[in-house]
Amino acid sequence: MNTNKLTAIRGAVLSFKADPFFHDMKDCLVYKEDAVIVMDTETAKIVKFGDAKDIIPTLDKQIEVKNYGKDSLIVPGFIDSHVHYPQTEMIAAYGEQLIDWLNNYTFIVEQGFKNKEHAKEVAEVFLKEQLRNGVTSATTYCTVFPQSVDAIFETAAKYNMKIMAGKVCMDRNAPEALLDTAQIAYDESTALINKWHGKGRAEYVITPRFAPTSTPDQLEAMKALADEHPDMMIQTHVSENINEVAWVKELFPQSKDYTDVYAKYNLVRRRAVYGHGIHLTERELDVFSETGAAVAHCPTSNFFLGSGYLNVRKLKDEKRPVHVGMGTDLGAGTSFSMLQTMNEAYKAAQMNGKPYTSLHAFFLAGKGTADALGLGDKLGQIKEGMDADIAVLNLKSTPIIEYRMKYAKDLEEALFIQMTLADDRAVSATYVAGKEVYSAK
Ligand code: GUN
Ligand code: ZN
């Protein structure tokens, strides 16, 4: 082992090895009060993890161990399962629900991504902001322009960040300047797959925006892509807003429901990630469960657009389990912070009368999302052999949090305080592929 390539950090560590929605918490939780993690910057993997007293004596004296101290908590880097990087410049656009919000704000802003320089500028702001928030990986929409895909993958490569992204395909119900066709969508997606998929850490994602903006012809083209690339991720939206669900019924009168539209084109499968899914019926949830498709839970967006509140516990039913990932859904979402996303997720769960603990929430933002995206073998856990993507939290990031933490009686309460009160200020450092890419100091 070349010690020059090793980075080592020390502090309390929280990770999960199984899903606490389905198993006893004691069989899921990994918590070490004083641990060391050794990362190899060459392979980008975690090479050692254990109690400090066991690891320190095994380390070459030349390796400097950065100690974050007792007020820190080291967690797997947060993963955002659903986000639109081009919407960075329009976060906090007032007053509309989904369809008007798309027409009046989103479709205007996305036209600017024809200009590659603009796309690069936004990609840089977006990724830097993610890293400031301890988000080390994301599944992001681009725009209809292939250069917007180049921009995010090129920028992510600078940080060696694992980004999953794809060109948005849409050939109706949007401004002319944002439309492709079935054939162009197929050809441009294929060219981008050949250019980017598997290059470094980049993963391509087949990306029909949502059923209302694709003709049946274009959905056929998406089916062809999906069939040609059976292991590739797919991302789109489903059942976010009541008016949207009614519109899909009008556009596809033959289909049983919204999910059935996608299922006809083989788009509901493992590694397909559906934004929102708030209003899915029992029949549709059965289809999600049978196929292994995932729902991306984006509570800040759902409250912001007045879409509703997903009942995560209903999806996490052991009789028909559905994968759930956490997402910010910026720019409808209102925060890059996964802590703030967990905060709003708790309120969504309360509105459903089905709350879950802070430990469940931290699971969802890490391993839960990694598993939902079919990346659980690489991301979402602090463990030997996993990708070395890590966030270091400061548990006393503001005066009120510092004060409140004095009264935290256990780990669960400490985490609940963090997810309720903390935000980007709580991230003291972010590591990607074993290297420090952000430090608060
Ligand atoms: N449905 C289709 N496109 C979008 C989008 O950009 N944001 C959200 N929240 N929902 C969508
Ligand atoms: Zn979205």
Keywords:
441 residues, alpha/beta, Urease, subunit C, domain 1, TIM Barrel, 2 domains, nine-stranded parallel sheet, four-stranded mixed sheet, 23% strand, binds guanine, binds zinc ion, Metal-dep_hydrolase_composite
Describe the structure.
It is a single chain. This protein is of the alpha/beta class. The chain has two domains: 3-77 and 381-439, Roll (Urease, subunit C, domain 1); 78-373, TIM Barrel, CATH 3.20.20. 36% of the residues lie in helices and 23% in strands. It has 15 helices and 17 strands. It has helices at residues 52-55, 98-109, 116-132, 146-159, 182-196, 216-228, 242-251, 258-263, 282-291, 299-304, 312-315, 338-351, 358-372, 399-405, 411-421, and strands spanning 6-16, 29-40, 45-51, 65-67, 72-76, 78-84, 135-141, 162-166, 168-169, 203-208, 233-238, 272-276, 294-297, 323-326, 390-394, 427-432, 435-439. The strands form three sheets. Strands 6, 7, 8, 9, 10, 11, 12, 13 and 14 form a nine-stranded parallel sheet that branches. A four-stranded mixed sheet has the order 3-2-1-4. Strands 5-15-16-17 form a four-stranded antiparallel sheet, covered by helices on one side. Helix 9 (282-291) links the parallel strand 12 (272-276) and strand 13. Helix 3 (116-132) packs across helix 4 and helix 13 crosses helix 15. The protein starts with 5 loop residues before the first strand and ends with a strand. Bound molecules: guanine (GUN) and zinc ion. Residues 84, 98, 102, 106, 209-210, 237, 240, 301, 329, 332 line the site of guanine.
